[in-house]
TrEMBL record:
Region of interest (Disordered), ranges: 606-655
Species of the source: Xylanibacter brevis
Name the UniProt record assigns to this protein: YgiQ family radical SAM protein
All copies of domain Radical SAM core, residue ranges: 304-584
Family as reported in the entry's similarity comment: Belongs to the UPF0313 family.
Note on how the cofactor is bound: Binds 1 [4Fe-4S] cluster. The cluster is coordinated with 3 cysteines and an exchangeable S-adenosyl-L-methionine.
InterPro entries (alphabetical): Elp3/MiaA/NifB-like_rSAM, Methylthiotransferase_CS, rSAM, rSAM_horseshoe, rSAM_sf, UPF0313, UPF0313_C, UPF0313_N
UniProt keyword Transport present: no
Cofactor requirement: [4Fe-4S] cluster
PANTHER family, per the entry: UPF0313 PROTEIN YGIQ
Signal peptide (UniProt feature, chain positions): none
Binding site for [4Fe-4S] cluster: 318, 322, 325
Amino acid sequence: MANSKYQLTDFLPTTKKEIELRGWTELDVILFSGDAYVDHPSFGAAVIGRILEAAGYKVAIVPQPDWHGDYRDFKKLGRPRLFFGISPGCMDSMVNKYTANRRLRSEDAYTPDGRHDMRPEYPTVVYSNILRQLYPDVPIVLGGIEASLRRLTHYDYWQDRLRPCLLCDAPADIISYGMGEKTILEIARCLNDGLPLSSLHELPQVVYLARRNEIVDGISDHDIVLHSHEDCLRDKRKQAENFRHIEEQSNMMHAQRLIQAVGDKYAVVNPPYPPMTTEELDASFDLPYTRQPHPKYKDKRIPAYEMIKYSVNIHRGCFGGCAFCTISAHQGKFIACRSKQSILREVKQVMGMPGFKGYISDLGGPSANMYGMRGRNLNACEKCKRPSCIHPQICPNLNTDHTALLDIYRSVDAIPGIKKSFIGSGVRYDLILHHSKDEASNKAAMEYARELITKHVSGRLKVAPEHTSDNVLQLMRKPPFRQFDDFKHIFDRINREAHLNQQIIPYFISSHPGCREEDMAQLAVLTKRLDFQLEQVQDFTPTPMTVSTETWYTGYDPYTLQEVYSAHSQKEKLAQRQYFFWYKPEERRSIEQSLRRIGRSDLIRELCPGSGGNPYRQQPTGMPHYKKYNNENHRTENTGKGSGKEMRGRNRRNR
C-alpha cells in the first residue's frame, strides 16, 4: 500500500474509531470536504486541518460525505465544541463537474477512481443546509474556492443567472475567503475564548451578512458601497461597475471594506490580511503532512493527487491578472515565497515517498517564474490598484530578476538522488523577454531561459499565449502574440545549440469576450504558419469573479464600460472552435463556408489548400507536430492549486 509506512494516527481522523485511537472524547472542529482527504499541502482541507491541529485544536475531516438518506456521515462524529468548517474542494464544484458546453467531465479529479457521484452540485450549499438542520446552534464557517469566488453578487454560468452572496443560499455564519490559514486561527481563537459570533465580524478576510444596524462601526465614507444585488439584476451595467471595485480591492495591500445590499441585509466583505511572510508560509508548508491519501482509499487512484504527487509548490500568489483566471481573486497578486530551506526540506520528503524515481514533476506555483519577484519600492505597491503588475505593460517598479529562482533550481538539482526537476507550471515568457534598466536582471532572464529549456523541460514546455489577436489579448490581459513568436525563436535556438528536440505547447482559448470568427480564422492561419496543430485548446468557460465572466455576462468591460461582443450561443461557439481544427478533413467544408460568410474567402487557400489527397504540407524534419485532442475535458481554465501542470486553473490550493 502506498502509505504503509504511516500509521492511521499520522493522518487527521476521519471516523469515530480514529478519534478513539487518539484518546479523544470531544472534537473542537469538524471539517467537511467535497474532495477525498489527501494529507498534502496542495489540498486545502488538509492544510486547514493541520493549521488548527498545530495550534492545539482537536480536528477531524469528513471527506465527501453522503448527502442522501439519513445523513449518517454528517452525524457520525457528533457535535464539535467550536464550529463546523465546509470546503467544497480545490475547485469550484461546477467547473469540476461540467465542461464549457455544460457536459459532464470524464472524471472527477479529486475523487477516488474519478467517480462522479461522490459530491453534489454546489456542495457548500448542500452541506450547510444539512448541518444547519441537524445542529442549528453550531457555528458554520465556509471556506475554499467556491466561497471565495461567490462572496458577492456573481454570475453563475450553469444556472445562467446572477446569484447573491453565497451566505444567502448557504445558511452559514461566516465566509473565510482567500487562503485561510490566518483567518481560521482567529475564528477558532474567538470561539474558544467564548466570544459571541458577532465578534467574528471584526476579523480581516471574512464575509458576513448583517442588517444595517449590525454592521461593525456602521457604514462610513471609507467603505465602498456597491450597487445592490437587486439593482444588478435590473441593470447589467451596474454589475459591471461593481466588479471593478471588487477586483481592485481583492488585489490591494490596504483594501477598503466592500458592502452590498441584498434584500433586507448587507453582505460585508472585510479587507484581507497582508500577504503571508516567508516565515508564515514556511510554517504552513512545514506541517507534518504525510503527503499521501488517507489509508481508507487503499490503492484507489485519485487523479489530481497522481498529478502533483512528486511536485513542490514554491510560492503563492500571481501578479499576472489574466482576465479569465481566479487565482488573484483567491490568492492575491502579491507573491509570498517559501524559503529555500523549506523547499529543500519538502524535496527531501518527496524523495522518501514510495515510487519516487529521482524526478520532481514540478517546482512551481500559480506561475512558474514569479518566485522572489516584488516591487522595488514597496511604498508604491501599498498604494497600487492595478490588478496586474505586467499588463498592459510590465510595471517599472517590478523587480523581474530570476536569480533567486535559478538558485532554487540549482539547489534542488544538487541534492544527491535528484536526477532532474521539471517545471510543469505555466511559464510567463513576457517576464523572460522583459528588458529592464537593470542589466543584471536582463542577463539572469536569459540565463533562466537557457536553464529552463535545457534542464527542466520533460520534452514539452507549456506556455499560454491564449490567442493571436491583439484586441482579444488586450481583453485577456495577455501580452501581444509577437512575444510568443519571439520566445519560440529563443526556444528553437537553444534547442538547436543544445542538440535537443523538444516541443513548445501553446494554450489557446476560443469564444473569449471580444473574440469573433475572423479572429479565430487569423489564429488558425498564424499557428499553421508556425507549424502547430493545436492540442491544448478550450472554449472560454465563464467562472465566478473574473473580469472575463463579467464582461461575457454584462456585455460591458468593467473598467471602460464600453460594450464588448461575446459569443453566447452554441452555434457561435462551435463556429469559433472549428478553426482550431483546420487540418481535419471533416472540418474543411464548414470552415470554407464560414470564411465565405464572414468575407474572408482569401484565407481558404491558406487554411484549406488543394483538393483530394493530403492537402496539408509535411511537417519539416525536427519541427514539432502537435496532435489535437477533441476532448473538452483535456484542458480547463480557472479556477485556480497545487503545483501547476495542466491543473493551472483547476488546482491552485483553492480551498
